[in-house]
Amino acid sequence: MDANELDLNRTLREQLEFHWNHQLRARLEGMTDDEYFWSPVPDAWSVRLRGSSTAPVQLGAGDFTMDYASPQPVPAPFTTIAWRLGHVIVGVLAARNAAHFGAPAASYETWEYAGGAATALDQLRTQLDIWLEGVRGLGDAGLRVPVGEKEPFPELPMADLVLHINRELIHHLSEVCLLRDLYLHTKPGTFGERHMAARTTHLDPEELHNNPAFTQGVITPAAARTVHVGGQLGSDRTGKLLDGIEAQSIQAMRNVLTVLAAAGTGPEHVAKLNIYLVNGVDAQVAYAASLSVWGDHRTAITVVSTAGHARPGALVEIDAVAVIPE
Predict the structure, then answer these.
(1) For residue 274, with 0-12 CB atoms within 10 Å meaning exposed, 13-18 middle and 19 or more buried, which class applies?
(2) What are phi and psi of 179, to 5 degrees?
């Protein structure tokens, strides 16, 4: 691609992917059910066990329903993390995935809302993956196609909808993070102490060169669980290897972060990162590409040059060991 040519699809996706990988995902880790349902004010809208809500409308098809009213009261009720996640998962993502990317039909009325934080975050990750994969499949041409009658402004191009979803996710999930901060400072001795207890400690002896990109050693908490991420190649969810060392490095690191997220952890809790590059590839290109996904998280790292990988065409493989915060 010419340096002056804009890859609109990648630009739109990476606005959200960067925010998720480097700001949101780690902030959502370790959420407890108490945080999920907590409200600093009385009479907040939330997700509640069926039959226990006093809201004018109770939306949902499962054991839990989401509070609602139409028309919405003025001023609008305060909403819990549970309610905000329900809105994001269903209204922002799942309904759009169904409308535009062939996912199962979804609506506020028919959704089975999560009765706990872990289930809600699983739903969020699933719907976000479907959305991003769908946007990726649009290419540049698909972003210029009108959204159609399933959206309030059918004449607008899909690019406008993608920008709207980006704004909605950044906006509402930032609210969730703020509520977690408020909970932490309102109820000390809960999330904060557990989070600190699971922190890793970096070792940077004065006798050794102090590199700002990585640390010389990492001490992990004695009581913490760990996850060992198997070697990840630069292949997408279908198993197809991407082209070139830059694309493969980005995808391999994304795959590592996906496994970490599935374990309930993230790059800030990684104790060791190993990168294996095939002889002859440009190590600087590979490093810069993987760093664009990894972000500013110092850890112990080993980079190895190898004759090749078990899979023909694979140029890079990355594995990791991380602490799982409790």
Answers:
(1) middle
(2) -65, -35
65: three-class secondary structure by DSSP: strand
CA angle, corner 27, sides to 43 and 276, nearest 5? Answer: 155
Beta bridge partners of 203: 217
Specify whether the CB–CB gap between 111 and 126 falls below 8 A. Answer: no
Instruction: Give the angle 92-191-67 at the CA atoms, nearest 5°.
Output: 35
- For residue 39, give both structure tokens: 């409200």
Environment class of 19 (CB within 10 Å of its CB; exposed 0-12, middle 13-18, buried 19+): middle
Sign of the dihedral through C-alpha 252, 256, 258, 259: positive
Whether the bond between 75 and the residue before it is cis, its omega within 30 degrees of 0, is yes
Q: What is the pLDDT of residues 105-153, one digit of tens each?
A: 999 999 999 999 999 999 999 999 999 999 999 999 999 999 999 899 9
Rounded to whole angstroms, the Cα distance separating 73 from 76 reads: 5
Nearest Cα to Cα of residue 84 among 28, 10, 142, 20 = 28
Q: What burial class does residue 312 get, using C-beta atoms within 10 Å of its C-beta: 0-12 exposed, 13-18 middle, 19+ buried?
A: exposed
CB 142 within 8 A of CB 160: no
Measure the CA–CA gap between 216 and 210, rounded to whole angstroms.
8
Instruction: Identify the CA nearest to 177 among candidates 20, 325, 24, 44.
Output: 24
Kindly report the pTM of this predicted structure. Answer: 0.60
Question: Which segments within the chain are labelled E, that is strand?
Answer: 47-49, 57-59, 64-68, 201-203, 217-219, 225-233, 270-278, 300-306, 316-324
Residue 211 identity (one-letter amino acid): N
